[in-house]
Amino acid sequence: MIKNNLLLSALKGNVVERPPVWMMRQAGRYLPEYIALRKKYDFFTRVQTPELAAEITVQPIDIIGTDAAILFSDILVVPQAMGLEVQMVETKGPILPKTISNSADLAALIVNEAAESLSYVYEAIKVTKQKLDNRVPLIGFAGAPFTILCYMVEGKGSKSFDKAKQFCFSQPELAHDLLTRITEVTIQYLRNQIKAGVDCVQIFDSWSGLLSPNDFKEFAQPYLLKIANALRGESPVILFPKGSWYALEDLSDLNIAALGIDWTIHPALARSLTHNKVTLQGNFDPNHLLKPISEIEKEVKQMIDAFGKDRYIVNLGHGILPNVPVEHAKAFVQAVKSYK
Amino acid sequence: MIKNNLLLSALKGNVVERPPVWMMRQAGRYLPEYIALRKKYDFFTRVQTPELAAEITVQPIDIIGTDAAILFSDILVVPQAMGLEVQMVETKGPILPKTISNSADLAALIVNEAAESLSYVYEAIKVTKQKLDNRVPLIGFAGAPFTILCYMVEGKGSKSFDKAKQFCFSQPELAHDLLTRITEVTIQYLRNQIKAGVDCVQIFDSWSGLLSPNDFKEFAQPYLLKIANALRGESPVILFPKGSWYALEDLSDLNIAALGIDWTIHPALARSLTHNKVTLQGNFDPNHLLKPISEIEKEVKQMIDAFGKDRYIVNLGHGILPNVPVEHAKAFVQAVKSYK
Which of A93, B4, B273, B316 is the most buried (most CB within 10 A)? Predict the structure, then answer.
């Protein structure tokens, strides 16, 4: 029933006329229409007000013409729902005043009722689906357990998340306990998003690339596969383990429909590591959107040629940057649409 | 004439009884003896006073027992020598109030006389060599041109150096002009360090891993190879292109004695990509030094087994962290020394 079915076809591995395109953080900070709303409502008001979240979600469909919408929200609503305060300082990133460092902190976390408390997300999904009117599919999302642990332990953004990693390495039992709790909430949270109407889900492991291959296998992979396994048959799952190119082969799992990659791995190598078993998504360096439009067009063509048009979703390798001109974002999407 | 010749043997590819070990940032913030000096002298006083720099350089040889000393200094002395002010805010990182954004900024940079003006570095090397008294070799160093460009354009540390990358992508001619100037100064700077007495040099490309393989080939690799080529026959060159695992094969060049790697690539893959043509250095995650000593010992043994004892220099995959207990650093080094 969805008119533009390219994303779901690509996730199924079907042959498509051209690959679908969307951009991580496409609903947001580079769009004047978004900036206008940001001036009126603070971050969590935008996230928690279904009408606003839905309006922001649909903006890039109307303005940029992407082939999918992704719900405007934040991965840190899960720590919030689990009982941790999250302050969002505009352009500065998140602060969690209370962090997790021992078993008492862990015991105080909300698990069973956490996902249910995020009803504003499910409501935003319903409103968004109405606004989209079956034009394009809607992507739901959550942070991966390791990435959520990073914020819950570190308490803020970081280049290296040393404190969070040291928590894992020096107190592995506590870390696994925390990861298990986050996984449980995340499965229920994504399941509720699917029930509310999203057509597929993406899991963002934004910081997994800080782990060695062995540590990824211990602290990231089991929880990712557990989530993907739990959602089998309910929704296609896109997994974006940013920077963890070394895990692509292990993650080419039957329960994962697509793997996102960043620009530090060549498409051909990503294909070879995944044995063409999954759809790949990525991997345009967002900073390349500052190049002249003629070069963006050329590079998009080269990128699609390198991935191949099937089992491929065109995207950036990370979120779109605030200073990207809207015309350049449009040119990126248009270059995919005119791919031959 | 150097009594402990393990590092230079490993750089030559000779068979050794055990691999040498040193740690990036081994002279510094985790050592109480360093912290005592930090309380008395500000950062650039420590760097620019040969007696102090030499004392700090030798501290880990006496206290931790590493097989090499690395000069206490900073990669940002090169932008300073080229005419840019660098402020070092303790625990906050560097600030460059004036950055490079156009050709006038570029034209104002000092090139010809820059390396000569760093005489305090060469003096520190001479004092250090006296203090070391041929116990272990002394490593000199410089930042790689791309990494120095990152700071000169961005003006501060960053997770993603978007401004610096956008400068490269939107003004490539200016970027290459800047990289060429930095390369010229760096060659002269390293040559002067060698003349003053360092036994080998390391080039830190701390941010090259933010580049795609193609962009690395354009903005990092040519300048790295130019430096290595210029120093041929004068000193062994260790190159540490952090995060740029994808470039290991291309960098397995005759003029590069060793390649440093971080923990995101398995030793066996690094060996295979470099066809055993170069010595490898790394790749212990510094956060693993927070594990119990018995585990550090076990992991060091596993790491040496994975790399093989020859053509290998034991090191961390990044600088040692401020909160590592001195006993753990000692255990890391001791585990290498008792490797069988």
Answer: B316
